[in-house]
Design a protein that fits this description.
Layout (H helix, E strand, L loop, with lengths): L1 H25 L6 H20 L6 H17 L11 H17 L8 H15 L18 H9 L9 H16 L8 H4 L9 H16 L5 H14 L5 H13 L8 H17 L20 H15 L6 H5 L3 H9 L4 H23 L2 H20 L7 H12 L5 H20 L1 H7 L28 E6 L2 E6 L15 H9 L2 E5 L9 E5 L2 H17 L1
Antiparallel strand pairs: 1-2, 3-4
Helix pairs in contact: 1-2, 1-3, 1-7, 2-6, 2-7, 4-7, 5-6, 7-9, 9-10, 9-18, 10-11, 10-12, 11-17, 16-18, 21-22
């Protein structure tokens, strides 16, 4: 907790300074302390994404950014912003912040932390954005802008990768500043994403902020659309947000097309980043083929697509069984999966129907636009992979729309405290959760509370690994563990190694003397096939 607090002080002071630079250039989207910090997040993320094409986002980049940020923080006397809160509000912010710090000090348990977040950050800090990295491990082709942002602060200010906890505290400041009390009720659920640099948490937060600003009739459409597009670059399943901002800008504010240039520039940057790392504009969909030579192997993409469809049904059916589904079976089997996910899916559909009925009753243009935007997202998600985690944000939006006028300060604080107690109990007693809710498989990956969390957030030790070589690629593989986690780069997950070998291909560096030049895939020759089979046997035996 204490070390995360130190990280908060350094990072927030830096972002305040950078945020002031952002305001000089593009104006102010959100007034107050939180607005400057979020502006700093946007500008820092854009700058580091551009830099990552050319250099690693390492300690030098971080220190330079901190120096610039702190210079403007003190030059502009931004610390005075801290004294604008009433005593009552200050106590509330401090109390909530302490709970956030405590919850974020637990062990990370989201599986993507080990298979995607940490490996992405390691590559970014050591090499930057690597061309064709998806050939090495398809998951790494995502390289979310949020992980670029986390990577930049991971060398010194936030080595424990708790940037989400810091953003949660800033979100708390926003809630208090705007008196948007309904959002306080969401915080306990978000605690579950505070131990890892999960891109889910920032997109939840930023989408609710933008939603609140649109409902409050914020007319700064340039930054509203740009910030919405920024959220999309973090996680493309948030497509509804830029759609909403665009509709709001054109149909309600009647904005000039010039006000949308900033946002569309971020979209172009997003496409370029994905083409560079993945080979196509939008990960993981192989559309708009530009014919770049570092794009992934078609067989691997086909396998990934089949896996995504199976994940829609919680891996309860084989791909061959799913292909035999009738139109009715597709819907029925999705709604009535075994376990808790069935209940989530049913609740999702019912909630969406309630929102549609509510919008018809209210006859409010803004709410109509929100419903249309959400339906666009739902159609796209259901078309590709209808996993419940892809539409969790829709629950937040629906709850916000239905209850934002109901929640006052008192009701929100009571709801927040009750929810916090439940989440802390959930995090503290994972064995109880695993026993009484076996369908929630994530409980098996949760670590117990430890006293050292009061000072330093809990972290798992590095896993053992083995080193192999196939062709010109010398790579590492975690031993007795399916994900890369902290394994030194270049590291490849077991599943991708086996998929590559089965497809008779294997990743190779473009320049064997410089991994930063990128990766391509090549067909295995006879010596390579022999070595690949040996590696496959060892991995299968050890895992």
């Amino acid at each position: 907790m204490i070390l995360i607090l130190f990280s908060f002080i350094i990072i927030v002071s830096t972002l305040l300074g950078v945020g002031r630079i952002m305001e000089y250039c593009f104006g102010n989207l959100l007034p107050g302390l939180s607005g400057k910090i979020f502006a700093g997040v946007l500008l820092t993320s854009i700058a580091w994404t551009l830099l990552a094409f050319f250099i690693p986002i390492n300690l030098y980049v971080e220190i330079f950014t901190i120096i610039i940020g702190l210079f403007f923080f003190f030059k502009e006397k931004l610390y005075h912003e801290l004294y604008t809160f009433s005593k009552k509000d200050t106590i509330l912010i401090i109390a909530i912040s302490l709970i956030i710090l405590f919850c974020s000090s637990y062990y990370p348990y989201i599986l993507d932390h080990f298979g995607y977040y940490v490996p992405s950050i390691k590559w970014l800090t050591e090499y930057g954005l690597v061309k064709g990295i998806s050939n090495l491990d398809l998951t790494l082709g995502q390289m979310s802008v949020w992980h670029i942002f986390q990577a930049g602060f991971s060398n010194f200010a936030d080595p424990f990768l708790r940037i989400n906890a810091i953003i949660l505290i800033v979100y708390t400041i926003y809630i208090v500043e705007k008196k948007s009390w309904v959002q306080l009720a969401f915080l306990p659920i978000m605690f579950l994403f505070s131990q890892s640099p999960s891109p889910d948490l920032p997109v939840f937060i930023f989408s609710l902020i933008i939603l609140n600003e649109i409902i409050s009739a914020n007319k700064n459409v340039s930054l509203l659309f740009a910030f919405s597009m920024f959220v999309f670059t973090i996680k493309p399943t948030m497509i509804w947000l830029p759609v909403l901002s665009l509709l709001y800008s054109v149909l309600i504010v009647k904005s000039n097309i010039k006000n949308l240039i900033f946002g569309f520039s971020l979209l172009i940057l997003f496409f370029i980043k994905n083409i560079w790392t993945f080979g196509y504009p939008v990960f993981p969909v192989p559309i708009a083929d530009l014919g770049v030579y570092w794009k992934p192997n078609p067989e691997i993409l086909k396998k990934s697509s089949q896996f995504a469809i199976q994940k829609t049904y919680d891996m309860q059916y084989t791909f061959e069984e799913i292909q035999k589904f009738s139109s009715l079976d597709y819907i029925k089997n999705w709604l009535f999966l075994n376990g808790i996910k069935s209940k989530i899916n049913i609740l999702f559909i019912l909630s969406l129907l309630v929102l549609i009925v509510y919008s018809i009753k209210k006859k409010n243009t803004t709410i109509y636009l929100i419903v249309i935007s959400l339906l666009v997202k739902v159609i796209l998600v259901l078309s590709f992979s209808a996993q419940y985690r892809f539409f969790m944000d829709v629950f937040f939006v629906i709850f916000f729309i239905l209850f934002y006028q109901y929640f006052n300060r008192k009701r929100s604080v009571i709801t927040f405290l009750a929810g916090s107690i439940c989440i802390i109990a959930f995090l503290s007693f994972p064995s109880f959760v695993a026993t009484h809710l076996p369908s929630y498989k994530m409980a098996g990956f949760m670590g117990n509370f430890e006293k050292q969390q009061i000072y330093e957030p809990s972290q798992y030790p590095s896993t053992a690994f083995e080193t192999f070589k196939i062709g010109d690629l010398k790579f590492n593989v975690s031993k007795n563990y399916p994900y890369n986690f902290k394994t030194p780069v270049p590291a490849i997950s077991h599943s991708y190694i086996l998929d590559d070998i089965k497809a008779n291909i294997f990743p190779q560096p473009i320049d064997k003397n410089n991994l930063g030049k990128g990766f391509i895939w090549k067909r295995l020759d006879s010596p390579g096939k022999k070595e690949a089979d040996r590696v496959s046997d060892i991995i299968t035996k050890n895992n």
